[in-house]
Amino acid sequence: MTSVERVKCLFKQQALKQPKLAQLDLVLYKWFTVMHSEGKLVAESVIIERAKSFFDELQKTEECTFCEI
To answer: Is 37 in a helix, a strand, or coil?
Structure first.
């Protein structure tokens, strides 16, 4: 295997999948980083409830399953 082929293979292996609900993912991430920067601890159950709330606010029609971490 040439070095070029190795690099191509490496990039293939590191490809990330995009979230199915990218807008929800971004809003939840921004909210979480604000909470973290303010020094607030956020329980898993609070994150899930906030995700459900954001999902409703965004009025998404896609199916979404919220599960415990």
So the answer is: helix
